[in-house]
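Suppose you are handed a protein chain with no further information: no name, no annotation, nothing but its sequence. What can you learn? This example shows the usual starting point.
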Amino acid sequence: MPEPSISLVNLALNKMRILLRGCLFIFLVFTLSFSRPFSFLRIGPIFITEMALVLTSVLLVLDFKRLDSIPHQIFIVTLVYFVYGGMHFAVPLFFGNLGALRDSLLFSYVLFFPISFVAFQQRAQLKKFLIVLFGGTLLGLIWVRICIYRDYPIFFLHELFSGVKAFHYSFYILANISFLIPFFLYVQHRVVKFLILIFCAFNLYILLLWGVRSSWLGLIVLTIFLMFVLKKKAVKFVIYLLVIFLVLMAVSITFFDLESIKNEILSAKFGSAVTFIKKRIMPDRTLPPSLKHTRDEFDVKQGESIYPERNLYLDVYQEGSAHTEGIKGRTVMQLSNIIWRFSLWDRTLKVAGPSPIFGQGFGVPIAIKLGHIDIAGSRIRSVPLHNHILTVFFKMGIVGLGMFLFICIYTFLYGFKFMRVIKDSFLKIFMIGCLGSFISWHSLALFFDMIDSPPTSIFLWLLIGLIFATVTIAKDEGQVA
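A reasonable first move is to predict its three-dimensional structure. Written in structure tokens, the prediction is:
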């Protein structure tokens, strides 16, 4: 008699697993499609990403035995990193520093690693992930076009999507390309190959229009990696892609984008791309007086930190309105972003000096004094550090950074090692896509607040889980040479 009841329990548990995986897939689709605006959705103080994290964590309870397949070295270090981050979160929160809530994602999102690992333990789940990645990003690219032109079909979308961050979609595009190029070599059907070429070319064209120059650097790094792994096969794909891309670009510019380029009515990011092309023939490259190095240092009691007086990036966009002044008015200063970042990083290292071992802790911001009063009526604003290495070092010190780097380096080397010995074509290609996306994430994270932003931070840990899950599937199926 007990056997039927056991079967019913197992059936119920399997249904629950399917439901939770479905929730994870839906969450990823909306994240890839709407990015930052979607991540702002919340119920009370709990945001959608945290709700998804708590809900899908049930998978860890249902399948905790599967975690034993994760190499013990990486599992132990990740666990210690999670506990260490939890301590950095709990202590300031206990003393009433609610700013620690904002930094909690540095440790809490680590749970997406084991969640991803147990959720994608089957080959079919990997294929579903690809469908989610390609489908969600395709929807996202449509919104990107809307955001580029700021031509919202419904009024409320202007408010909803005005907060879109370009580097979010830049990473999604690079992740798409990381999988599309290897899978072009995997599939045999010519129609499918042609569709992959078109989709990849469309991703590249949007990447150009979006105008995030650091993403172009990420594309170069990704290309080098894929060239190294795929060798002559990658060269063949690039030739095909170049032809499709040039045709697509010619058609798009001729029929859709030409008037916008002529009239300079583009968004700031689109204008940045156009200016990057035009700047070689611009006669005036001098810096406006407001961007000279006339910054003073001053003390802030909280954390006794020294901060730069001016946010050069904001000054540039105050000098020339990104929406009304035209290209020249908003791009006289081509190197402002770089200057601002180096200034911020330099100050960060000085502030972190007193606590290099364990870090400044969560809830201690790096602030800047603006050269003007912002919308909130303040001259002081906390900013992310736009560099994941410095962010972890500043918040968690050398100890936290050491564990973080170990997790990332170990994961890449582990995945790269098994990529070379996996016999199954699909799993090998999928691993190449994961490693390419992993490299792309870190390339962008060197210049953007990838680790501080939920729509991109989660993908670091999801990719880590996918890499280990792919190796586990290959081992279980006897596909490792």
